[in-house]
Every structure is written in C-alpha cells, then in structure tokens.
Design a protein that fits this description.
The chain has about 280 residues and is an alpha/beta fold. It has one domain. About 40% of the residues lie in helices and about 15% in strands. The chain has ten helices and twelve strands. Strand 10 and strand 11 form a beta hairpin.
C-alpha cells in the first residue's frame, strides 16, 4: 500500500473511532481512491481489489477529480472503493453496466470532464449507451468521498447533511481527506450547494465565480463544481450532461492551465490508460 492510501486509512481509522463514540450503532462506510486492480465475480457479486499501482496512477494522472457525495445508501457495503459499477447477479457475458441514473451520470460526467475536443464537448449521442464511458471508468483513478460516512437511506435531508458538515470532528477529518488527494476538480454533488459551500468556505477559500456551476481558486488552481446530485431526476441525463459541459467549457475557455491539463491528459490516456492492465476473474 502506497503512502497516499496509508494516510487515507489513518484518517478513516480516526473517523471510525469518533463515529463509534458519537453513533455507536451506525454503519460506517470507507471511501477514497477507488481500487483499480483485478475485478472478481463471485457468488453473483462483483468486487475489485487494490493494485500495486494505485498511488502512482493517481499521482501521474494530469486531471485529478474527486466526486464529493452526501452519503452512501447500501448497508451491505463497508467500503465503496471495492465498487465496480457492474450489476450484481447478472451473467458475466451480459451487459454488466449499472444503468440507474446515479451510475450513468457519474460515467457521463467523468468522461465529459476529461474529454474536450478542440474546446467542444463530446456529443451526448456518442456516449449515451455508456460503453465508452464505462471502459474509461474502469481504468481512470477516481476519488469518491462521502461527506457523511454513516450510511443512510434513499435520501438525506439538508438539515442532517448540515449537521455532519458543521460537526467539528467530522468537518476536520473531511477537510484533511479532501486536501490529502490534492485534486484539480472537486465535483460537489447535490445538497442544495451545501457541499460546495463547505469546500469553498473551509478548504479552497477566495474562489472566483465563473458561472453558477464553476468556482475557481486561482492561487491553488482548484476548480469546484456545484453540481446536482447524480440521481437528480427533474432533468434528463442528456440535459444534465450538456449543461455541466457548457459551463465547464466556459471555464476552460478562460483558463490556460486547465487547457494544458486537457492536452496532457489526452497523451496520458493514450500511453498510460490505454496500456493499463487488470484481470476480470470469473
């Protein structure tokens, strides 16, 4: 285990200790850099193991992205880093992709934010079936962090989310975890802008508002995206993708640093990700 993953484990260990004291009957869910090692299908369920290259892959990727979520809803999972975006209890030779709104929007948004062609978005119709995005997702070193580490139900109230974000112990550890990964882009998913406010007021302060979605800290070169939750149902998946990308392109048009990152990422993808190997063991 690399130093980055070790430090994340230390933070999660502190979090578990505090959580047991404050919420002794709660179900704690670990998170961080999603594992990109071998994928296993056993007993109808998929999971993924860490590789020996997790730290290096994250350190070298030119565009580092965190998806900052509210909480996790599955009481059966203790660690989201094992998730595969594959459907359980589906024969391996069938289409494996989870196709709920939450999963598909993550696939679309991640692919769009890393693939801009000559300052234009990849058309939604090219990625709508999800396969291109899914193939990319399985190799890209994505960080997913939940603000509330205790698993919840199908939804969380803004009041409860605020309680976790404002709790001095939890807030301190969340700040350290986000800072640990030093991502270029922090996608704040939902919470009526509470998550975005937490990041811009406690971690990357002094952000310039580019538009209603994009906020940029020029000193540390961090882009904060105030997004809807991936499960948001009032808009179509295409509309969510295209609005996100139009606002992102407005930011890119005025930021040379991120334009260069996009160019470097295109090379990185062709050399590093294209040749990245892992096994699917059935």
């Amino acid at each position: 285990m690399g130093e980055l993953l070790k430090r994340n484990e230390e933070l999660l260990g502190q979090w578990v200790t505090i959580c047991k004291e404050k919420e002794p009957n709660s179900h704690f869910v670990k998170d961080g850099l999603l594992y990109r090692g071998d994928i296993y299908y056993n007993g109808g369920k998929w999971d993924r193991r860490p590789s020996n290259n997790e730290d290096n892959l994250w350190s070298n990727v030119p565009i580092k992205i965190i998806f900052l979520m509210k909480d996790f809803t599955n009481l059966e999972m203790d660690d989201i880093r094992y998730e595969t975006m594959r459907r359980n209890n589906i024969p391996p030779h069938f289409d494996p992709i989870k196709r709920d709104a939450f999963s598909m929007n993550i696939l679309y948004w991640l692919y769009g934010l890393t693939h801009v062609r000559k300052m234009d978005m990849v058309p939604f119709l090219e990625i709508e079936n999800g396969q291109i995005c899914f193939d990319f997702y399985e190799k890209y070193p994505l960080v997913r962090i939940n603000c509330k580490k205790v698993s919840g139900g199908s939804s969380i109230s803004d009041t409860l989310l605020y309680q976790y974000l404002s709790d001095s112990d939890y807030s301190k550890l969340l700040k350290e975890q986000i800072e640990l990964f030093e991502a270029d882009i922090i996608v704040c998913c939902g919470g009526n802008s509470q998550i975005k406010r937490y990041v811009s007021e406690n971690i990357y302060t002094g952000c310039e508002k580019i538009n209603n979605w994009m906020f940029y800290n020029s000193e540390k070169k961090k882009l904060i995206i105030d997004s809807y939750h991936p499960s948001y149902y009032s808009w179509s998946r295409q509309s969510l993708y295209e609005v996100l990308m139009k606002n992102y392109l407005e930011f890119l048009s005025m930021n040379k640093d991120f334009q260069e990152k996009m160019e470097k990422f295109a090379i990185f993808e062709q050399i590093e990700l294209k040749n990245y190997k892992y096994n699917i063991i059935i």
